[in-house]
Every structure is written in C-alpha cells, then in structure tokens.
Amino acid sequence: MAIVAAIDCGATSVRVCRVDLEAPSLVPEVVHRVAHTPRRDAAGHLRWDWTAITSAVELGLERCLELGPIDSIGVDTWAVDYGLLDGDGHLIADPFSYRDERTSGYRALVDEFGATRMYESNGLQLQPFNTIFQLAVHDRAEMERAERLLWLPELLVHHLCGATVTERTSAGCSGLVDVSTGAWSRELCDLAGIDSRMLGEIVPAGRVVGEWRGVPVSLVAGHDTASAVAGMGPSISGGSAFVATGTWMLAGIERDAADTSSWARRRNFTNEAAALGGFRFLRNVTGFWLLEQCRTEWRLDVGELVGRATAVEAKVPIVDVDDESLRSPDDMLTAYTTLAGLRRDTDPALVTRSIVESVAVRTADVLAEVEVAQPFDDVVLFGGAARIELLVARLRNFTRRAIRVGPAEAAALGNALVQGVAIGALSTLDAGRERITGSVYPKNDRRTAP
Ligand code: LFR
C-alpha cells in the first residue's frame, strides 16, 4: 500500500486529498476543502489568516487518518509568499499576501539593478509580488526579530513536523536565485536587503524531512504550479504546451534549460524551477480570481454562473485581464465592469461570459508566443477551471489547437507523485505521470469550477 495525503493550498481554498499511488489510474479523493481569505491588519496590509490555514490542514489530515493509515504527507501552496521565524522557531506575524499593495514601487528597485541584468540573473518575469520586492519593503521591526525565512509550503511543513527546509521550486520563484547556478545570488540578496543565511540551503524535493503523528512528511514541489505540471499527465511525443488553470492561467512549456534571452525578457516570460529538475517557461495570465472576487458580491454558485454564461448569445466585451486595476481592487465587480464599459448591475451571466472570453483570449495570445519559442503539438489544460467546458471551447476556438483536458486536481496529483518518489513507492516521476490519463476528476467532487 502507498496511500499519501496531498495538501494543496490555493489563494482561495485549502484542499487535502488522499491518493492511492498503487491504483491503476490515479484519482485523488478530496477529503477536506475549505475556503480561506486574507485580511487587512491594523496598518491596512493584506495578510493570510495563517491560523485558519493551519487548522484546515490539520483537520484535513485528521479526516485522512479516519479513512485509514497514510504513508506520507506533502504540502504545496501558491508561490512567492513567506513567513519569518524568530530564534525560537515561532512565526513572527501572519504572512503578507502577494496581493498587498506595499510593493507597488518595485520598479525603482528594478531600475536600480537594471532590468536586463536582473532577468539574466534570476530568469523571472517581473511581477510586483516576487519575494525579492516584498522583502525590500518588509516591516523593519519584524525583519529585525527574524532568524529564518520559510516559503509558505515549507512553513506548513515546519508547522507539521518542525523541519526547517528551503525547497528548490519555492526558492525558484523568489527572484533571489541565480538561474544559471541554482544558488542564492549575492547581488540580488543585497538588493532585497536579506542575509542569505536566513534563507538556508536550497534542497530538491523528493525526500522525507520529518514526521507528523508518526507519518513521514515528504518534501514535494512546494510551488503549486510545479506540482500541477508534475501531475498533468504525460506529455505527448512532439511536446505539449500546458495551461495550469485556477486563480491564474499559467501558460507555457517544460524545458531542460532556462531561456533568459532578450526576446523572452521583453515578453515577460518566466523560468520557474520544475518539480524534480528542469524549468517551466511560462507567463501568468490573470485567471478565475476575477470570477471568485465578483462572486463575493453576487453570492452565486460558480457552476450556475458558468451554465448561464454559456447560454449568453449577446456579444460581450473583451478586457485586458492583466490590467493593473484588476490586480487587487477592494471591489472587483466595480473594477471589472468599469474596465469592460458595463454597468455594475449587468446580468452576472454576461459579466461571467466576458470574464471567460477575456481570460481565454489572453491565454491564447500567450500560447501563440510560446509557440514561437518552441513548437508544440497540443495543449493540456488542467487545474480547477479545466472543468469549465465553456473555457475549453473558447480556448479551442481562439488557439485553433488540439486541447486535452487533464486532471482538475493536478497539483494534488503531482504532490502525491513526488511523495511516491520520496518514500520509494515510485521509481521516477515519469513512471507515475504515465498513469494519469484523460480527464481525471476527483472521486467525490461535484463542483464544476475552480
Ligand atoms: C498559482 C501561483 C503562480 C504564481 C502565483 C503567485 O497559484 O503559484 O504560479 O505566480 O500563484 O504565487
């Protein structure tokens, strides 16, 4: 038996899945899913509710154990955010959310260092939330008390078993790693004002690092997108592009080496560390975060909204979903409808249709650019929003490419596969990846969207 618990935390929900690695086809069972949201602190900054997240994780693990013994636990979360530990190993404050506006002046830092030099060094797309920009403006009083920084997946690992580790895919999105050596860049750490001793030694995933109630805790690809691409299923022989869907649409290809050419830099492509070696060459497109945020106003079910949006026959406005005004607005419905030239009280079905169309247009644009960098034969779409048939249909239409639908819970699957490697239940990642076929929906999940 090799049954593992995969904890996959997205920016809007925590999922805990049970995966039987010996089953002929790998289907995660979602045993716990709970929504979470960042809150504003006294100074008005957005911070994650860390207690809510850790409680959801623990409850999920308890539910897993109620169903039978588990052989390993692994954790992945969204990238770039981190927590600071004091000398006693205690978390100093709730981690900041990458949507917090405190990094809005990040361009000054880029100019100081030089955009080309920065890209050639860390290979990352310029996003205001990259850890390097967050650290440069981090609250000084907190920073002075800090002894160790952990990215959120490893902060959860620390919470579960006390280990303090820095995993390669988590470190790889920080903007502090020299992409050609895989080690901390002294110049970039200096720019962020961080002593690299606080960051620890970078280690690869695929190893056991501790125990939670006697169950091994394995280090997996901490970055959820790295886990999701690991769990997307096999790539076909001519090569597949991918789109990891959810809060973001992450469109790109897998590659052995990073591409820091001026072509890639000008298009803001990123080179992110892949689960067990290699890179993902991709660009972020704002995804279903838009719908999730509008939904807080409408209080309507995603499945119902998407169903009604599919029936819309009117032409809907296409907006630039990456517009700055949609990054972190207090009121997404106002921000989106203003950009779209719609009234705020427009039928939610029409707004939803506009969001789906706009997200698909932008994603198709990125895929067209990916194709220039490296031709591919088809596109694999996976993650929460891969269940939205309207999205799949519109992407087919805009890209004119074959689109295969992969697992909805790809991140949990990739997480589970790397655990399999860590505990010796799988010889290689590819051996597991081959057993993910077609559209895999979680056993017990009737939701129809992200
Ligand atoms: C997806 C994701 C993206 C990253 C963004 C911020 O959940 O991890 O890969 O760019 O969130 O961390």
Automatic annotation (TrEMBL):
Residues 4-212 form the Carbohydrate kinase FGGY N-terminal domain. The keyword ATP-binding applies. Belongs to the FGGY kinase family. Pfam families: FGGY_C, FGGY_N. CDD domains: ASKHA_NBD_FGGY_RhaB-like. One of its GO terms (molecular function) is rhamnulokinase activity. One of its GO terms (biological process) is rhamnose catabolic process. Residues 243-422 form the Carbohydrate kinase FGGY C-terminal domain. It comes from the Bacteria. SUPFAM superfamilies: Actin-like ATPase domain. InterPro entries: ATPase_NBD, FGGY_C, FGGY_Carb_Kinase, FGGY_N, Rhamnulokinase. This is Rhamnulokinase. Keywords: ATP-binding, Kinase, Nucleotide-binding, Rhamnose metabolism, Transferase.
